[in-house]
């Protein structure tokens, strides 16, 4: 597994637990650090994903719901929902990852952690959202360090 994929995997596990349990993301992340061996740069990437996605989960979900109308968001598998949130944050909100890379990484995570149908579902929803990258970016506004 590639290094950044491992970092995304850690972020996904934290967001998944937070989504299911309601635990605080900082506490869950700290617990996972005890069993994770990643370089500081990769841990920082995981931290950015977690704390980039977590505060705007509901806003991300509203964009996701528009592109998976046949699946009410509360019926989308928790793992799939979090994979999509992370990829959407990476390419449309933060803009730190090219669209194709974010989607490919999301598909890989879906293959590892999701059901047999997860990769196709994740790819379809993210493909639709990719077409609205600029609109989503504008909706979330400029980043403090990019103003």
From TrEMBL:
One of its GO terms (cellular component) is cytosol. Pfam families: NusB. One of its GO terms (biological process) is transcription antitermination. InterPro entries: NusB-like_sf, NusB_fam, NusB_RsmB_TIM44. It comes from the Bacteria. Keywords: RNA-binding, Transcription, Transcription antitermination, Transcription regulation. Signal peptide: none annotated. The keyword Ribosomal protein does not apply. Residues 6-130 form the NusB/RsmB/TIM44 domain. The keyword RNA-binding applies. GO terms for molecular function: RNA binding. NCBIfam families: nusB (TIGR01951). Belongs to the NusB family. Involved in transcription antitermination. Required for transcription of ribosomal RNA (rRNA) genes. Binds specifically to the boxA antiterminator sequence of the ribosomal RNA (rrn) operons. This is Transcription antitermination protein NusB. It comes from Ornatilinea apprima. The lineage of its organism: Bacteria, Bacillati, Chloroflexota, Anaerolineae, Anaerolineales. The gene is nusB.
């Amino acid at each position: 597994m590639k290094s950044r994929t491992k970092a995304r995997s850690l972020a996904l596990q934290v967001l998944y637990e937070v989504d299911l349990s309601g635990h605080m993301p900082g506490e869950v992340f700290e617990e996972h650090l005890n069993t994770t061996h990643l370089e500081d740069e990769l841990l920082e990437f995981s931290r950015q994903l977690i704390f980039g996605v977590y505060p705007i989960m509901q806003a991300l979900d509203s964009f996701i719901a528009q592109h998976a109308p046949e699946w009410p968001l509360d019926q989308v598998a928790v793992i799939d929902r979090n994979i999509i949130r992370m990829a959407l944050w990476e390419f449309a909100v933060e803009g730190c990852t090219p669209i194709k890379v974010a989607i490919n990484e999301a598909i890989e995570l879906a293959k590892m952690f999701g059901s047999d149908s997860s990769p196709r579902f994740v790819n379809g929803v993210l493909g639709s959202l990719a077409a609205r990258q600029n609109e989503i970016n504008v909706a979330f506004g400029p980043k403090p360090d990019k103003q």
